[in-house]
Amino acid sequence: IQGYGLLFDLSENATAHKLVTAAYESQKPIAAVCHGPAALAKIKLADGETLLIADKEVTGFTREEEVAMGTLEAIPYLLEERMMEGGAIYRKKAAWKELVVVDGLLITGQNPQSAHGVGKALAAMLKKE
């Protein structure tokens, strides 16, 4: 399935996890949209225990959007469930509506319609640095 690679590989990639952890702990913003937040779901901070998304408000592609795409049988897990299993506070709007969630240095967008808003939020955060 095109566009779903993050659910299969990047979410388990130790090198990516280390890079994101280093950036986050250096007070750099982390942004992801649509299925991109899957890459963040299992990242542990430097203490080796705390998940990056634990107790953070996040969003990403929803169950309803997967149903609409007909992809439930082809994907290894539902992103919103994976995020909640990691202790995240998962936010969502109706399918295909724009939603950008900012929690500290973490910026997430629900779907492709949210990409522009995520970019704007990231640019604003970088401008403050």
Automatic annotation (TrEMBL):
Belongs to the peptidase C56 family. HSP31-like subfamily. Keywords: Lyase, Stress response. Gene3D superfamilies: 3.40.50.880. One of its GO terms (molecular function) is glyoxalase III activity. It comes from Rhizochromulina marina. This is DJ-1/PfpI domain-containing protein. The keyword Disulfide bond does not apply. The keyword Lyase applies. GO terms for cellular component: cytoplasm. One of its GO terms (biological process) is methylglyoxal catabolic process to D-lactate via S-lactoyl-glutathione. Residues 9-121 form the DJ-1/PfpI domain.
